[in-house]
Amino acid sequence: MEQPADEYVLAVERYPCTAVAVPQARAIAARAYAPYPWVDHDIVKLLVSETVTNAVLHAGGGAFDLICHAPRHRTVRIEVHDRGETTLPTRRRPHGAWDQHGRGLELLDALAPGWSVVRTLTGKGLVFQWQATPTQPAPGQKEW
């Protein structure tokens, strides 16, 4: 995915593929988007948790990178790049109502439709965008 010329990055971090990296990545994303009150920080943290957990559990590449882009047009774009095999994420079925696994791609479909996976020279990257609803204006903007 090509980055527009006027876009900039709020945070870039590399993490080892370990369980402790998940809350660390979530915290970095929360801090990156804290200055934007119109961003639903709970949704961003949930989506970051799901995507980096996928990298930790399934990528097998030793490390992953989290890239948080500055919001544009009320849209947040985040990338998670791993160094694992280039096999694409696969849908898993939860085994029951309380099963904690198998819902990550469903959450992405529901909250960040249009997410994608790109192949890179070192592995793959999962890219998602979350679009704010027009219920609260961004600072300095008029109501929609």
If you had to describe this structure to a student in words, what would you say it looks like?
The protein is α+β, with helices and mostly antiparallel strands and 144 residues long. Helices cover 28% and strands 26% of the residues. The chain has three helices and five strands, in the order E-H-H-E-E-H-E-E. It has a five-stranded antiparallel β-sheet, with helices on one face. A hairpin with a 2-residue loop joins strand 4 and strand 5. Helix 1 runs antiparallel to helix 2 and helix 2 runs antiparallel to helix 3. The chain is globular. The two termini are 28 Å apart. 24% of the residues are buried.
Keyword list:
single chain; alpha+beta; 144 residues; 26% strand; 28% helix
Strands side by side in the biggest sheet:
1-2-3-5-4
Structure classification: alpha+beta
* Strand residues, percent: 25-35%
Rg to the nearest angstrom? 15 Å
Helix segment count? Answer: 3
Low-confidence stretches: none
The sequence of SSEs as H and E is: EHHEEHEE
Shape type: globular
Largest sheet, if any? 5 strands, antiparallel
Q: Using DSSP, what is the number of strands?
A: 5
CA(first)-CA(last) distance: 28 Å
The portion of residues assigned to helices is 25-40%
Mean pLDDT: 82
Topology:
Elements: E1 9-16, H1 21-33, H2 41-59, E2 63-69, E3 75-82, H3 104-111, E4 116-120, E5 123-131
Antiparallel strand pairs: 1-2, 2-3, 3-5, 4-5
Helix pairs in contact: 1-2, 2-3
